[in-house]
């Protein structure tokens, strides 16, 4: 007999790119909706991987607050400096549109307040790959189309291997959104 993880509150999710392309028999990922205790569980799980600070007050938080500073404070935008501070990819994201430059010294000072930031940047790509995988492992209950059924303790490596890499990333970050959504947002 296969015993599922808790199915008290579930949500079905299919990445949008399946519906956009009209793909038939697109996989439906049945996920356990994170509860009030799950943030601590996820933080503990990530701590074992050494990447807890990336999502919890580390790189992600520092970068987001830096973006807010850019949008709010300064009259013009220095794209090259933004790339130097935030990296090529994030710097390029900030160049178009209405964002304006901040006092970059303030941004750098803000980032320095998060001790893991500078050391963790090098590992951020690794974390970007690992974080969704951790979340799918913890919260995926079933994907019938791929023959995935979580047992007690979550999804196995063999089950994860059945899931397309793009889906792992998208579904994982969908769970991340649920994890930090307000209760009224989860209903939507």
From TrEMBL:
Superkingdom in the source lineage: Bacteria
Protein known as: Tail assembly chaperone
Source organism (scientific name): Caenispirillum bisanense
Phylogenetic placement of the source organism: Bacteria, Pseudomonadati, Pseudomonadota, Alphaproteobacteria, Rhodospirillales
